[in-house]
Fold this sequence. Notes:
The chain is built from 14 helices and 14 strands. By secondary structure, it is an alpha/beta fold. It has three domains: 3-83, Rossmann fold (3-Layer(aba) Sandwich); 167-337, Rossmann fold (3-Layer(aba) Sandwich), CATH 3.40.50.300; 340-404, Alpha-Beta Plaits, CATH 3.30.70.240. The strands form three sheets. Strands 6-7-5-8-9-10 form a six-stranded mixed β-sheet, with helices on both faces. The protein is elongated, with a radius of gyration of 27 Å.
Amino acid sequence: MSKVIVAYRNKEFLELVESLGHEILYSIFMGDNRNPKYYLSKGKMEEIREKADALKAERVIVDAILKSSQWYNLENSFNIPVDDKVRLIIDIFADRARSKEAMLQVEYARLQYEIPHLRELVHQLRSGEHPGWMGGGEYEIADYYQMIRRKMARIRRNIEKMRLQREERRKMRKKAGYILVGIAGYTNSGKSTLLKALSGKDVVIEERMFSTLSTRTSKIGKEKILITDTVGFVEDMPPWLIKAFEPTLEEIYNADIVLLCMDGSDSSEILERKMNLSLDILGSRVKGKIIPVINKLDMAENLQEKIEIVRRIGEPVLISAREGYGLEELVERIKKEMNIKRYCLEIEHLDGEIIQFIERFGRIKKIASREKIFVEFEMPADKLDALHHLLDLISTGNSEGLKEI
Ligand SMILES: Nc1nc2c(ncn2[C@@H]2O[C@H](COP(=O)(O)OP(=O)(O)OP(=O)(O)O)[C@@H](O)[C@H]2O)c(=O)[nH]1
Ligand SMILES: [Mg+2]
């Protein structure tokens, strides 16, 4: 990675830069003064140029979404590569991508990012400001541009294929009676830690942003619940970049329950900002219920204030995914939201079909046989009518032995 100079608006941006492994030689707060041609003000430009020379910086990173003309002007002025926030996020994604799907999505985003920059280069060449720049010049860039377009179309087809497979898989899981739970939230809020704590499986957890890009689905213990981890959110992600990861987010949009994981160790103000941002991204597309979860309780100060903020979207469940605190309550809450109830069935003869039905949609807790057979089980309440029907179909009056407990 590179030795960089960073112009930032938000301290969080420095973390983002460091999480990619860059060495920050110097950072400068941007303030509100802007020169539209460069985005940065003249004074800041001067300061950066001086520091870049003195410290031998290899790259300048700007906490903004630059117009391609601004990017071009900055590179020309500094004479070293300039990255904006979008470019940085794409680089981080590229670094973290492990699955084939994530790699394709990152590649797509990268190409999409390049297009306006290429247009800018062509524009500059045509206007004659840079005769002969890049050797072959204009035509070479035009060819390259066509190639990118073709490549993007190919990737899009591949991603669409994977999306359909994913949809099919989701349908099968639903048919098999699973409740689908998705974990959403800001990057580094502890989503993967939560998945691991609930499922006991190994997942990548790191003290850096965007450690997870692709989804991973696990079962919660013996419950009929499947839980999926997803890519984290961050401020200022342009809509097209979020769209590149849409197939992954579909796991969230189509889940029965979405756990909105929040970092309780953030200040109330930051927690609120991140919560609002997450809700903006999830928007109206979430079909299931959102359960707000405040994580990192072990490090949370002013908890009451944070609970009040989060109550706006629902009563939060308080957990520490790392310390394993509050996880049972969370599972209970999921069941409650799904209206999973506990029943007892008292029956003369337990038919295989009945067992199959209960196991498909619920979970048997206890079977005891005295004169009759007693089955205690949990099941979503909306399956009750169907079970009644099945019981009576097997033997009239059978369903009288079925009670909620
Ligand atoms: N103190 C404390 N730290 C936690 C807790 N849960 C997670 N962490 C830490 O928070 C950091 C991020 O955790 P991850 O689970 O990787 O976060 P994530 O939301 O999956 O992040 P991305 O995949 O980057 O979006 C790690 O260093 C975890 O150890 C917790 O309950 N308490
Ligand atoms: Mg993760």
